[in-house]
Specification:
Layout lengths: L23 H17 L2 H15 L42 H21 L4 H6 L2 H19 L7 H13 L14 H20 L10 H4 L11 E4 L5 E7 L7 H11 L13 E3 L17 E2 L5 H5 L12 E2 L2 H31 L3 H9 L7 H7 L9
Parallel strand pairs: 2-3, 4-5
Antiparallel strand pairs: 1-2
Helix pairs in contact: 1-7, 2-3, 3-5, 11-12
Length: 391
């Protein structure tokens, strides 16, 4: 079945997911991923994959009756290609694709497809240019698994191995097992985190001025490394769906999640060029990220106390991961919130004075007065020499 292409559909919101990616880098990355996903299900590319298997096994097509099911014995001569005299590829069908002999054969096939596939099928040239190495490898491995399944009913795989191969193919969870999706590269993960951060920064600015969350204290949670890493969603057969799977942080506190949810609920002031649908997934099990810059590390209010007291997570309860500043956070929140209320009150007084046309000297004094700002710099000045973790 052909895979659906990316759709411009509203995203699904979650406490740790935003509506869309933005920024030039993230948009460029999403364009490449979208084009690669479309190429993944391209019919011409599928034909090239089938040809690659048949070509290297020296058979006319991939019907079960033509598939070579036996591995050459030690005293048997290995069959070779009549034109190139190179050894034909054979597979140990009862083994996974990670078996050294199977892996070697699959490497030959996907290298051939990548380098010479367009010569066999010019109509597949466009798909071969845009498909990523990750997706091309997946496509070849998926074909290997489908050939495995076709051989089971014919009895070519020993019965004792059928259930093991089927189980591993359908539900592998670790790298190197049959059917396991390759992990996202560091660049892709960072690009998605950056896109999520930029959207949330715009939405944070769009918060109402009287919102209790629009403070520098809460803004410290908007750090790229503290954004969750969205994964590629896959269907029951392990195929990419074109959606992102949101994996909220397990370590996040309710207070942090409420802040993120309030920010995500805001309308993005800028309309993004591309929408990527997100679906809510299970909570991620990753620990707190180590961040080099101290001012970017997680504050204690962001981390769930219940998660942190778990013996398995106590290794993160150190300044290298968590900054102790709960009291300062409360102080800064109250001061900034009070400063905003004072500014609003001064503005109302100024408007009333102007409307009545009285007390010009007083109105002038109000206009010239410098109100207390809500920046962390102002708070630091008010505290004297006391440093702030929220700058």
């Amino acid at each position: 079945m052909a895979m659906k292409s990316l759709e411009r559909a509203p995203a699904v919101r979650d406490v740790d997911g935003v509506d869309e990616e933005s920024s030039d880098d993230s948009e460029g990355e999403m364009d490449r991923v979208g084009a690669s996903l479309e190429a993944y299900s391209d019919r011409a590319l599928l034909a090239v994959v089938r040809h690659g298997f048949a070509h290297y096994m020296g058979i006319p097509n991939l019907q079960v009756k033509h598939l070579p099911v036996s591995w050459p014995k030690d005293d048997e001569a290995w069959l070779t290609d009549s034109v190139t005299s190179t050894k034909l590829v054979r597979f140990l069908w009862e083994e996974s694709h990670t078996h050294s002999d199977n892996h070697e054969g699959l490497c030959k096939i996907w290298t051939y497809i990548h380098e010479k596939g367009a010569l066999f099928s010019p109509s597949a040239e466009k798909a071969l240019k845009v498909i990523s190495e990750e997706h091309l490898r997946e496509r070849v491995i998926e074909k290997y698994h489908s050939l495995q399944k076709a051989l089971w009913p014919a009895g070519h795989i020993p019965s004792m191995r059928v259930s093991a191969v089927a189980s591993a193919t359908a539900s592998a969870q670790r790298l190197g097992e049959p059917g396991d999706p390759p992990p996202l590269t560091k660049g892709v993960r960072q690009s998605r985190q950056l896109g999520k951060l930029e959207v949330r920064e715009r939405k944070f600015k769009a918060l109402p001025d009287d919102s209790k969350y629009k403070t520098d204290a809460y803004k410290t949670a908007l750090i790229q490394q503290l954004m969750s890493e969205d994964e590629n969603e896959r269907d029951a057969e392990g195929k990419l769906t074109g959606c992102f799977l949101m994996r909220p942080w397990m370590w996040a506190s309710d207070k942090r999640n409420m802040f993120i949810a309030d920010v995500d609920a805001q309308q993005d002031p800028e309309l993004p060029k591309r929408y990527t649908k997100r679906v809510c997934g299970p909570i991620g099990k990753a620990g707190l990220p180590w961040i080099q810059k101290v001012e970017h590390r997680a504050r204690r209010w962001m981390v769930s106390p219940q998660w942190l007291v778990d013996p398995a997570n106590q290794q993160f309860d150190v300044p290298a991961f968590v900054i102790d500043n709960e009291k300062k956070c409360v102080k800064i929140e109250k001061r900034e919130y009070a400063a905003k209320k004072k500014i609003k009150l001064d503005e109302k007084v100024s408007k009333k004075v102007k409307a009545k046309g009285k007390g010009k000297g007083k109105a002038k004094a109000v206009e010239e007065a410098q109100p207390v700002t809500s920046s962390s710099k102002a708070v630091a000045e008010k505290d004297g020499n006391e440093s702030s973790d929220f700058e």
